[in-house]
Amino acid sequence: MKNSQLYKGSLNTIIMKLLEENGRMYGYEITQKVKLITKGELNITEGALYPALHKLEADGLLDVEVEKVDNRMRKYYKLTESGEKETVNRLNELEEFIKNMQSLVNPSPNPDLQF
Amino acid sequence: MKLTEKQIAHIDVALKDIGVAYRDIRQEMTDHVATTVEEMDGDNFYANFRHYMQLHKKELKATYYRFVRTAKINALKLLLHKMLTLQTALIIAIAFTVIRLLENYYDINDSAFVIKSINAVIVAVPMLYYFLTSSLFRSKRFSGLDKFLSALTGLTFLFILPLRNEGIWSNQVLFELYNAIGSGFAIAFFNSFFEINKKYRLQYHG
């Protein structure tokens, strides 16, 4: 994953957001979707993606369906009801975080301190 | 290019050969690798797959170990969750009461022994079940169950250790309570095991 330290904390939220938009997805599809949206800037490795998916599943935020597709078993992930609610919370948190980071990185000039 | 069943089986065997032992993990990794190979240029599956493995073998192994670690952590979290339920508290209370009642007829060690024996049977049932099914059907080895049982074997051993040293139990009530907690642990273990087993059965159709 590009600049993994910066993206690491947001991986679960990215996954949940994609599932919220697309209904159900499988692992490879998620990696490709992220690559497509970020124009190749962000590459989620399977080593990061699958443990995150399994953790979300164990936390009851994702549900799983296994189906035979193209001669093999494919595991699809989708949000549970509590996962949908949690996605909204996490997206709000992420937006707040981005806003705060923008303020820190690119502070607007404080009019009180201007001469 | 869509892969044939024979080509999928080839990927499955190759993953098994590099140490991806568990069926649940291998199926998901097989799908990931197969989809990646399908997206590659050219129609020579074996050349594409060989090239993919040369580049990603190390990464696949690392992913596998992360998969296994996550499965173990998730299973232990489920056990902890089951330990902290009202049902477990009720079982501990019942076991504690039973030990106290038995003490009217037997001495404290014999009373505790009855509870310990029941706990041992409760813990042994899932272990025996898994041992038999995984020995008879090798393909039924699932990461969550396997890692859960190996971690639990260690935890059970640690739990039993203080009970083997009677000298440290100067407080009778604590001794009774510790044995009663053993019942809560055994039931939580039993429930967790069969919940994980059910999940795998539903997902992978046995």
Notes on the structure:
- The complex is a heterodimer of chains A (115) and B (206).
- Chain A has helices at residues 4-8, 11-22, 27-37, 46-58, 81-105, and strands spanning 24-26, 62-69, 72-79.
- Chain A is of the alpha+beta class and 115 residues long.
- Chain A is elongated.
- Chain B folds into two domains: 5-69; 71-204.
- Helices cover 83% and strands 0% of the residues of chain B.
- Chain B contains seven helices and no strands.
- Chain B is elongated.
| Secondary structure tally: strands of chain A | 3
- Residue-averaged pLDDT of chain B: 88
List the total number of helices of chain A: 5
Backbone shape of chain A: elongated
Query: What is the percent of helical residues of chain A?
Result: 55-70%
Poorly predicted runs of 5 or more residues of chain A: none
Give the number of DSSP strands of chain B.
Answer: 0
The CATH architecture of chain A can be named as Orthogonal Bundle
Characteristic terms for this protein:
heterodimer, A: 115 residues, alpha+beta, Arc Repressor Mutant, subunit A, 3-stranded antiparallel β-sheet, 57% helix, B: 206 residues, mainly alpha, 2 domains, 7 helices
List strands and helices in order, with pairings.
The complex is a heterodimer of chains A (115) and B (206).
Chain A: H1 4-8, H2 11-22, E1 24-26, H3 27-37, H4 46-58, E2 62-69, E3 72-79, H5 81-105
Antiparallel strand pairs in A: 1-3, 2-3
Helix pairs in contact in A: 2-5
Chain B: H1 5-17, H2 23-39, H3 45-83, H4 86-102, H5 108-136, H6 143-164, H7 172-204
Helix pairs in contact in B: 1-2, 2-3, 3-6, 3-7, 4-5, 4-7, 5-7, 6-7
